[in-house]
Amino acid sequence: LEAQRLAGESQLRLLRAQLEPHMLFNTLANLRSLVDVDPKRAQVMIDRVILYLRGTLAASRQESVTLGQEFAQLSAYLEIMALRMGPRLSFEFALPQPLEPFAVPPMLLQPLVENAIKHGIEPKIGPSAIRVVAQAGPGFVEIVVDDTGLGLRDNATDAGYGVAHVRDRLRATYGERATLSLDANPGGGTRAVVRIPA
Which terminus of the chain is more solvent-facing, meaning fewer CB atoms within 10 Å of its CB: N or C? Predict the structure, then answer.
């Protein structure tokens, strides 16, 4: 179990090394153009990047975080993406107060949200939305990541890697008691459902 946990954390560091530069380089390129045309918006984006990086650094030093912290980290990431994408991206969170202290592995949901952006929303013309919802069930907590983008495509290998990474981390932390399912949304897009024992 300890070997599985260490392997999971090693994969987390590898995933961050792959995903964060992509997001940061695009954000910095966007910031460069904003500085001249919209300095106030550039300042807001810089503040969001600082918040996101602080959260990422703190999460990398912990074995678990609360759902409240996880949702705050997702919010910082999505605020950056919304500043970059403008009206093409909207997002919403629903986290009941009793679930805020519930412990989860750090940055567990990040690959699912990044997949939704990169493979569902960025390539789609027009507006899209992401909704992240946590709810309690009998003996489990369920977190749903819904998007209204194009959905995951068969050739999205890095999306497949992100999903496999989340599954591996769930298995290393909870064994067979936790699950991740991916389905098409009835109205278009993708629905990812993480179920964790309470």
Answer: N
Please give the distance of CA 89 from its chain centroid, rounded to a whole number.
14
Q: How far apart are CA 147 and CA 184, in angstroms?
A: 10
Q: Which secondary structure element, helix H or strand E, spans residue 147, and what is its range? A: strand 140-147
- Residue 108: closest CA among 82, 79, 147, 69: 69
Q: Are 168 and 11 in contact (CB under 8 A)?
A: yes
Q: How far is 190 from 129, CA to CA, in rounded Å?
A: 11
Question: Per residue in 21-52, is it b (16+ CB within 10 Å) or e — as a string?
Answer: eebeeebeebbeebeeeeeeebeebbebbebb
Q: Which position has the higher pLDDT, 19 or 149?
A: 149
Question: What is the rounded distance in angstroms from the CA atom of residue 126 to the CA atom of residue 44?
Answer: 24
